[in-house]
Amino acid sequence: MATYDGVFDALGLRTWCDASSNDGPMSMADLMAETGSDDASAASLRDLPFPSLDALHEACGAIPQTRDLTLGLEQGFLAIRDGLRIVIDPLTQPLSWMLSDMIWMMTSTPWWIVIPVLLLLSFLVARSWKVVGFVAATLGLLAFIDHYEPAMETLAIIFVCAFICVLFGVPIGIAMSRSDRMQRIGIPILDMLQTLPPFVYLIPLIFLFSVTEPKLYGIAIILYAIVPVIRLTDLGIRLVDQSVVEAADAFGMTSRQKLFGVQIPLALPNIMAGVNQTIMMSLAMVVIASLVSAPGLGVLVLRGIRNLELGVGLVAGFGIVMIAILLDRVTKAALARVDASQSSR
Amino acid sequence: MTNQVKVSIRHLYKIFGDDPATAMEAVRQGTSKADLLENQNHVLGLRDINVDIRETEITVIMGLSGSGKSTLIRHFNRLIEPTAGEVCLDGENILEWDEARLRQMRRETMSMVFQKFALLPHRTVLDNAGLALATRGRKRKEYEAEAERWLERVGLGGLGGQFPHQLSGGMQQRVGIARALTSNAPIMLMDEAFSALDPLIRTDMQDLLIELQAELRKTIVFITHDLDEALKLADHLVILNDGAVVQQGEPQHILLNPADAYIADFVADINRARVLRARSVMRTDPVDGEIAGEIDHNDNLESVIEKAEGALSPRFRVMRDGKPVGTLLMSDIMRALVPRKTDHAA
Asked: Do residues A60 and A125 both lie within one domain?
């Protein structure tokens, strides 16, 4: 007899319980309980189980088991999957194209074009020869140990994802800074995106798209990495010196002039810090995304784990660190440049 | 002496809180500021303010911190919305204006100078000075000459290419003034414009303002907590305490006839000999006796005492534009130098 039998009897629900009782397939726990010695009838208060779904199910068949809950969730998701796909698939298709084209472009162009272009790019962003020298040394080293191609794949994915994060994150952040209600709605979503374990992003995506599609990992990376740029854009604009904003009002600026002439320029250091964080987080996610066919250095790390190839995994991991430092230095130098022009605050 | 009224504030109330309308009812029925805060958790910021700002005059609004003076000046260009009352510009109630009209007024009719300068840190001094014109949609080339001219006028010629943080506080506020002047607005609102500056630089800036005003004849509303500054600049002085006007009028008049104990206390520590002028103390009815010399009606008492070499008997003829307008007796000077004690009983 189950512990909670008495409760249902007392409530007069016994007939309801038995009528709609449907014993699903026997669970492992049931089997264990049945095979175990059956002398546990000396019910003491000590062994009182928590009235969980499973415990109540034992007493009353009409109550679902916990595994029905997870099963229901899964079936519900599968039921809406096709509808969801019709909407999301075309919307996200450009992401797939962007990712595969970018990877193709960066890996099939000869190295003696790609590396100088990357160096030029880092100079344009950072305006510092020291940083350019560091980038050259890092890329040279990675190429020297024959990790050039995976490194380029990783960089290509990060470029595309970070670009899309900024493209969507900055306007969302601006919208949140301008309306308290938007902020109240946005912050819990951002909190959830930030605290959800990275692997969890992958689960529904695997069901939605085929594993061979680049957008699968693209979406996972973007969802994970977009949070800081939104947060810091919102914060940055809210932190703009109110007396300067007031002056803009007093001289009759429209809200558009105020946004582009005062608020965004003054929030730029914070927005840039957000971009830096976003790039760092996409790099973290790109490794995990190799589980779902994202190419790049993450694949080598995964191989190291799967095949216990210690050296391969360590060298690829080291390569990721190098790329992380490289991206961080370049964006930090850009941040410092923006900061220097408004050091009055 | 009496100029046209440019801006007029009528029965202005400002209540801070969640439900100002209800609180306003209570205030109209005579609830005091303390009771309002206690019972309804609303702050009575301004209470029944009536002030006329006259054209080409400097109106100084003075009060200690928390008296509501910064709140009041922000009603002139509607940076703060009043709870009740009217703000009339050339006879039109600006509270009835829509956004576009208000914006145009802020661009063309009123400019503002701020206590914390509030320059745009990412733009050059020249761009800051030309802000008002740039906001109106003028191209850089068009406002450059105008901005340069005003920067020159406030003593910052050739610094247009610098960024604000490269300048000292006094220089930054000169940019702030140049910015207000470049907009070419007839009304200038100055919110504690010199309070953040060192005393010496502050004196410099006051002199600059007086000099500019002699030439430009703007209508200026100046906020300060410094009585010396107020007396130096004011044509019309408004003293604010606890969100209400305690006394307003000609500064000399306020000094000689404080309305209540609060004002009397306030003006007690002032160097009266330097502030009071011959015209406020002189007698206009004919006085018999020997005249020791002539003085200008705007001479301060200090210079008259100096002229008398400390003697108590001489009389002076007070002259204005070359004509005698009255007589000044040394005994009257002595009486004026002592703050009136009788009002303390009130």
From this structure: no
